[in-house]
Every structure is written in structure tokens, then in C-alpha cells.
Amino acid sequence: MKRILSQISIIALFLSSALLSACHNDRPDPFLDKEQMCSLLTEIRLTETRLYNHRETNVEISNEVMKNRTLEAYVPIFKKYGINYAQYQKLLTYYMGHPRDLEEIMQEVAENLTAMEEGFESQNKQE
Fold first, then answer.
1. What's the pLDDT tens digit per position in 106-118?
2. Nearest C-alpha neighbor of 112 from the set 22, 38, 49
3. Tens digits of per-residue pLDDT, 17-38?
4. H or E element: which one contains 61?
5. Position 79 confidence tier, pLDDT thresholds 50, 70, 90
6. How far apart are alpha carbons 11 and 99 in whole angstroms?
7. Is the CB of residue 54 less than 8 Å from the CB of residue 65?
8. 3-state helix, strand, coil in the chain (%, to 5)
9. Cα distances (Å, whole numbers) of residue 104 to 54, 91, 109, 114
10. Mean pLDDT on 91-118
């Protein structure tokens, strides 16, 4: 009986360590924690807003202009966080597989943007 319990314990230990390593191994490299991801997504959202507000209205050149503006806007952000676009996509995929973490991140992004907007509105009222 002790032998069976010992074997069950070993199997349980193996399975739990395998699960822990599997959870850790699904992280992309480089990995941005929730705080870093929140900062990154806040910056990206601000950039998207800026690009939208300054979009090209000339239909003949709009696609090329927006492509260039987008590259100019996003590349420095990704460099700041030490990633490229493909790594950013892997990070998004990782966090989509961890919905609770993603929900926390997106909630924090929304709070950051709301605070920035309120600060901007407050500043404009004082001027």
C-alpha cells in the first residue's frame, strides 16, 4: 500500500511540475508583464487616436501616407519595450489565452486613458 501511495505521489508531483513548466513555457520571449503590457497598450491607443485625428483625407495618397505615419509611430514604441511587431502579436496571443490577466490590463488601460482625458479637460478649462 505504501508503495502505491509513493508511486501516486511521484506521479502527482511529476504532473504538477509538468503543468507548471507548461504554463511558464507558453510565455513568449521577450515577455512583458501585466504592468509593462498595460503601458504599451496605453501608448498604442494614444498613438492610434493621434493617427486617426491626423489622418490623410486625400484619397489618392492616403494609404501610402498612413502606412508611413503608422511605421513612424509604432516602431519607436516597440523599440522602447524591446520588441518588434511579431513579438507584440505573440504577446497579445499569450494574454488572450489568459483572459483574467488581459481583462485586468485592459481595465487599467481604460483607467489610464480616462485619467489622461480628465487631466487634459481640466487643463483646458484653466486656460
1. 999 999 999 988 8
2. 38
3. 444 444 556 899 999 999 999 9
4. helix 59-80
5. very high
6. 30
7. no
8. 85, 0, 15
9. 30, 15, 9, 15
10. 94
Question: What predicted TM-score, i.e. pTM, was given to this entire model?
Answer: 0.73
CA nearest neighbour of 95 among 15, 14, 41: 41
pLDDT given at position 71? 87
C-alpha cell read off for 29: 520571449
Q: Give the confidence band of 94 by pLDDT, cuts at 50, 70, 90.
A: very high
Domain coordinates in residue numbering, the chain = 29-126
Longest dimension (CA), the chain: 81
d(CA 120, CA 126): 10
Residue pair 91/83 in contact by the 8 Å Cβ criterion: yes
How many residues are present in the chain? 127
